Amino acid sequence: MAANSDEILHDFTPMLRAYKNGRIERLAGQDFVPPSLDPATAVNSKDVQIAPEINLSARLYLPGNADRSKKLPLLVYFHGGGFVIESAFSPQYQKHLNRLVAEANVVAVSVNYRLAPEFPLPIAFDDSWVALKWAAAEGSDEWITEFADLNRLYLGGDSAGANIAHNIAMRVGSDNPERFNLRGIFMNCPFFGGVDPVGSESVEQFKPWKEFADKLWRFVCPTASDCDEPWINPGKDPNISRLVCKKVLIYVAEKDLLKERGWYYKEVLSKSGWNGKVECVEIAGEEHVFSVFFPDGENGMAMFKKLASFINDNE
Any idea what the Cα angle at residue 45 is, between residues 42 and 50, rounded to 5°? Predict the structure, then answer.
């Protein structure tokens, strides 16, 4: 064993440690559960291969009351984990998506994109784009073909997944793909960044957190010039007014410093000239991605109900 095998190069506890010898130690998000028929929600799930050559897959969810005669909205969901941990197959995302799908009454595709640092950004974005195009392709999967309405497409995610949802929505606007109509995006405690602090990020006691986040951004995308790249900081994107959907729902948590980035996103989008409706909801007393960790909690269930209204309002 090399003498430096245990020397830590990057420490992103509680998510990941990277060692000088190249070893990556993931500290969370490594558990997997199989798809199933969930007895608590009657939601059924199954796994599909999207692009086996790049190990891109997804978990599909179908509500128990799905009826071929009445198609449902399609939600393409991106999990969180700082781009470095978690998967679409973890126990907490299985439970989270079961609750969300049951409440919102949607068909969902939870994308298992590849993780950094082995696959640095923009690979997660590229994988997510491939998954979205797969979902929209004719004959992609019988659950989508028979039960989903591609004219009512939504993108959603938490933390890093919320960042992906935004960036994929921007790509929908620029690439103008066929066969679906993006109605809206849902972002739960979105993971954005920026060179200059916003809000309470400038408070002395929070500076270590911002330094941690900035370092993580450089780690997941070492080719980025700085944290003002548009996909990190939408406030620096001159094209943000071209966001193609007409409504955006953002959730932030009072005890999560990332709430400042969620509010900043709302401010930037509102002032950009974008022709849509954006709402940001802050939940008192909660921490980062509270609904993922506690989907049965009062605030998590209330968020799912709000999301159900957001998705099923046909305005």
Answer: 160
